[in-house]
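[worker-b] picked up task from shared queue
[worker-b] task type: protein-ligand structure
[worker-b] ligand name resolved to zinc ion; SMILES cross-checked against name lookup, match
[worker-b] sequence length check passed
[worker-b] input payload:
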Amino acid sequence: MIEFQDLLGGFVRIHILHHAVEGEVYGQWMIEELARHGYRISPGTLYPMLQAMEKRGYLTSRQDSDGRLGRRRKIYTATDLGREGLATARERLRELTGEVSHKNRTTESETGDNVHGTQDRHRSS
Ligand SMILES: [Zn+2]
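[worker-b] inference finished, payload out:
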């Protein structure tokens, strides 16, 4: 589970894609990388996510032939579709970041201005 998974799941998938475009990634490394960014994600959540992304055609995988300790791990890289998806996500993210930051500034400036604050609040009910 991730906190607010329904909201933040997309961020996690974009983060995975970002690294899978740069190079090869595998589950355990990705869990540690995400933890550094404040996402606590369990293998039980991450592995199905990686598998789903592969199934959707964003990632491709191979078995690590090294097989240390008799364990074979799956190594993922991004496909062309994954690169395309990341490029689009990056644009949207830039847009969203601008919007969200702008909203924060607006709220701060409105706290001292009651008239504008009430005028801007439209009720649609
Ligand atoms: Zn990262």
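[worker-b] attaching auto-annotations
[worker-b] The chain has five helices and three strands.
[worker-b] releasing lock
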